[in-house]
TrEMBL record:
GO terms for cellular component: cytoplasm. The active site is at 89 (proton donor). It comes from Paenibacillus sedimenti. Residues 6-152 form the CMP/dCMP-type deaminase domain. GO terms for molecular function: dCMP deaminase activity; zinc ion binding. Zn(2+) binds at residues 87, 113, 116. PANTHER family: DEOXYCYTIDYLATE DEAMINASE, DEOXYCYTIDYLATE DEAMINASE-RELATED. One of its GO terms (biological process) is pyrimidine nucleotide metabolic process. This is CMP deaminase. Belongs to the cytidine and deoxycytidylate deaminase family. InterPro entries: APOBEC/CMP_deaminase_Zn-bd (IPR016192), CMP_dCMP_dom (IPR002125), Cytidine_deaminase-like (IPR016193), dCMP_deaminase (IPR016473), dCMP_deaminase-rel (IPR015517), Deoxycytidylate_deaminase_dom (IPR035105).
Length: 170
C-alpha cells in the first residue's frame, strides 16, 4: 500500500502546480488558500488579465533602495522588482472572499515579499506556509507575522513535484 502525502505536502504541491501558469521570467510563484482541509482558491503571479506579460513585453523593473542598520552602521540595500507582475498572493486576495480567508492557511511556493506580507497580515489568514525563502525581506516579514500572531513557517525539507521548479532570478 502506498503512503499518502501529508496535508502540507499535498497543498504545497498544488501551489507549485499553480505556479506553472506563470509567465514571469524571473520567478514562478503559486499560492493556495485552505480552510481546514478544504481548498478555497489558487493563484499565480503574472500581468493583469488582457495585458501583455513579461514574456511578451519584457520585465518592467524598478530599483528600490532600503537603508538597514547593521551593528550601528547604515547599509544600503538595492532591490530590483518587476512592477508589471501582480504577485501570486495579491491575486489570491483579489479572487477570494474575506469570509473564506478568516482563520485560513495560505500555502505559497515562495516567502512573501514585504508588500504581500502586509496584505496577508490584514487578510484574515492565521497561517502562512512557504517553501523557498526570500532573504531580502525575511527578517522584517518574520517580525510582522510574529507581531500579528500569524503562524509563519517554512517547509525546508519539501521536494516540489517534477517539472514545477523554474530557475529563480533575484
Amino acid at each position: 500500500m502506498r503512503n499518502r502525502k501529508d496535508w502540507d505536502t499535498y497543498f504545497m504541491d498544488i501551489a507549485y502546480m499553480a505556479s506553472t501558469r506563470s509567465q514571469c521570467s524571473r520567478r514562478h510563484v503559486g499560492t493556495v488558500l485552505v480552510q481546514g482541509k478544504k481548498l478555497l482558491g489558487t493563484a499565480y503571479n503574472g500581468a493583469p488579465m488582457g495585458v501583455p506579460d513579461c514574456s511578451e513585453a519584457g520585465c518592467m523593473l524598478v530599483e528600490e533602495i532600503e537603508l538597514k542598520v547593521v551593528e550601528d552602521k547604515e547599509e544600503v540595500i538595492r532591490k530590483q522588482r518587476c512592477i508589471r507582475t501582480i504577485h501570486a498572493e495579491q491575486n489570491l486576495l483579489l479572487f477570494t472572499d474575506r469570509e473564506d480567508r478568516e482563520g485560513s492557511t495560505v500555502y505559497v511556493t515562495d516567502q512573501p515579499c514585504w508588500t504581500c506580507a502586509n496584505m496577508l497580515a490584514n487578510s484574515g489568514v492565521t497561517e502562512i506556509v512557504f517553501h523557498r525563502g526570500y532573504p531580502k525581506d525575511h527578517e522584517k516579514v518574520s517580525s510582522l507575522m510574529l507581531a500579528r500572531g500569524i503562524t509563519f513557517r517554512r517547509m525546508e525539507a519539501y521536494e516540489p513535484p517534477a517539472g514545477t521548479i523554474s530557475e529563480v532570478i533575484n
